[in-house]
Amino acid sequence: MNTLTGYLRQAGTALRFLFFATLVLGVAYPLAVFGAGQLIAPYQANGSIIKDSSGAPAASALIAQAAANDSGAQDPKWFHARPSAVKWDPASSSASNLGPNDPKLLDAVAANRSAVAAAEGITEDQVPADAVTASGSGLDPDISPAYAKLQLARVAAANGLSTDTVASLVEQHTSSGVLSFLGQPSVNVTALNLAVAAAAPPSQPAQSK
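^ thats the sequence. predicted structure below, dont judge the formating
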């Protein structure tokens, strides 16, 4: 009888602890973290969602989107992000896992360099490194200011905008200060393309290059 009573007492203690832990760790703690996130950094806590000119959610500033037209080719209207080993699919974020001496990587870099040079009307030696190499996630929305400036003329012409207007948009979306303190200045392509779309004349049809 004493043994049974001891088992029941232990079981009761375990159940009370389970109930208490569930309330604290499964309810109170998640709510506290959620509340702190909404209070301190609601933009980041909600996925860094950026909106279009109508105020509707359009994309996450943390994820690059394919700047492709209906045929699947890179659309000249938009700034292009870095190459993606996962074709900009958020469900399969990954790097290419190809070593620096892998012939497949070297071939991909060469092909990307030729494609960028042809699209921008420059020589291959003028193509920056981030234009031909994928990021570790395959979804990095940031490119170097050099690569953004390389695309200025094409994007401006395709959207009926002046190069000065597009250059100003690039400048506005180039990180500086605290954001670039631990690294190098970068340009968020996702946010920049939304700004280009908002600035483009609504009656101006896109011109293919």
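Helices lie at 2-40, 42-45, 103-120, 145-150, 152-159, 163-172, 189-199.
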